[in-house]
Write a structure and sequence with these properties.
Elements: E1 4-8, H1 12-24, E2 28-32, H2 35-44, E3 49-53, H3 61-70, E4 79-84, H4 91-97, E5 101-105, H5 109-123, E6 131-134, E7 137-140, E8 145-148, E9 151-153, H6 157-167, E10 173-175, H7 176-184, H8 192-206, E11 215-218, E12 222-225
Parallel strand pairs: 1-2, 1-3, 3-4, 4-5
Antiparallel strand pairs: 6-7, 7-8, 8-9, 10-12, 11-12
Bound molecules: calcium ion.
Length: 231
């Protein structure tokens, strides 16, 4: 059962971009372009997570969030608020209104995807697949173990998070900066080269017995997980 995500956003190109990426990641997506439309949809059925824009026609995202929190049925509904740059001073208000997380526009889609995955794992673990499979690699999030063709692979905590990040979007190329943001977080200062070091360790661990290297280096761009890839 795929998790259902409601996108409430009045910028149509952004809604389309998010819908495309979320559906590609296996989620079921619904959307609303106005605040009142969102409230109607939310009364009809409760999704597993809401991506809620702050500034909306008719009813603001803040107001929707406040109303959702006031009702027992939706008091704990996972909500990620989208805010525009310049509204950062209002961030605190967003959090006290009850959003679980917020993302400042413009943001990278992969960053928002990582936040959505993280929030769903925290709030609705049963809705997020515990075991990811790609080629002969089995990634068990719950038990925090990785297997390749049945053989257990020992990974350090950073390599584990790096693989988790990459394996969720097979074939997709991530820049070093995206990997730094997604795996290490925004607030840490780390050199780009650190990513290369950990990618090297991950590769070595995954292909220790001469198996195919599943990580593709894209010159000038970054890295991708690709189970069909052979160096
Ligand atoms: Ca807006």
């Amino acid at each position: 059962m795929a998790a259902r995500i409601l996108i409430v956003e009045d910028e149509e190109p952004l809604t389309m971009l998010l819908r495309y990426n979320l559906e590609a990641a296996g989620y079921t997506v619904d959307s609303a372009a106005r605040g009142d439309e969102a409230e109607l949809k939310l009364r009809e059925s409760t999704p597993d997570l809401v991506v809620l824009d702050w500034m909306l026609p008719a009813v603001s995202g803040i107001e929707i969030c406040r109303r959702l929190r006031a009702q027992p049925a939706t008091a704990k509904l996972p909500i990620i608020m989208l805010t525009a740059r310049g509204e950062e001073s209002e961030r605190v208000r967003g959090l006290t209104t009850g959003a679980d997380d917020y993302v400042v526009k413009p943001f990278s889609v992969s960053e928002l995807m990582a936040r959505i995955n993280a929030l769903l794992r925290r709030a609705k673990p049963e809705r997020v697949a515990a075991v990811l499979r790609a080629g002969d690699i089995e990634f068990d999030r719950e038990r925090r173990r990785v297997f390749r063709a049945g053989r257990e692979i020992t990974l350090g905590p950073t390599e584990f998070r790096l693989l988790e990040y990459l394996i969720q979007s097979p074939g997709r190329v991530f820049s070093r900066e995206q990997l730094l943001n997604g795996v290490w977080g925004h607030d840490v200062y780390i050199e780009d080269r650190t990513v290369d070091v950990h990618i090297g360790r991950l590769r070595k661990a995954l292909s220790d017995s001469g198996e195919r290297d599943p990580i593709r280096t894209v010159r000038g761009s970054g890295y991708a997980f690709d189970e069909r890839y052979q160096k």
